[in-house]
């Protein structure tokens, strides 16, 4: 397992406030709010959710999160 993959899994677990294995929009917003002024804009959060939610259920599973974040595709160029 790559270190980027492991880091993505650790971030997912940190964001998954209720431990159900799914990230909701509210959990992502709460994690973002904890960053204070360094967090993402609402439009960036919505874009992240849309990009990560490959099955369209409105929640992000670990595999979806790792597929997007674990390879650095979420980072701005």
Strand order of the largest sheet: 1-2
Shape: globular
CATH architecture grouping: Orthogonal Bundle
Number of strands: 2
> What is the CATH topology?
Recoverin, domain 1
User: In the residues, how many domains can be counted?
Assistant: 1
Strand content: 5-15%
Helix content: 40-55%
Mean pLDDT: 85
Low-pLDDT runs of 5+ residues are 73-77
What is the CATH H-level superfamily?
EF-hand
Helix and strand content put the structural class at mainly alpha
Biggest sheet, in brief?
Answer: 2 strands, antiparallel
Radius of gyration: 12 Å
Following the backbone from N to C, one meets helices and strands in this order, namely: HEHHEH
The CATH class assignment is: Mainly Alpha
End-to-end Cα distance: 25 Å
| DSSP helical segment count | 4
Helices and strands in order:
Layout: H1 3-15, E1 22-23, H2 25-33, H3 42-52, E2 60-61, H4 62-69
Antiparallel strand pairs: 1-2
Helix pairs in contact: 1-4, 2-3
Short description:
InterPro entries: Centrin_CML-like (IPR050145), EF-hand-dom_pair (IPR011992), EF_Hand_1_Ca_BS (IPR018247), EF_hand_dom (IPR002048). The protein is mainly alpha-helical and 77 residues long. It has four helices and two strands, in the order αβααβα.
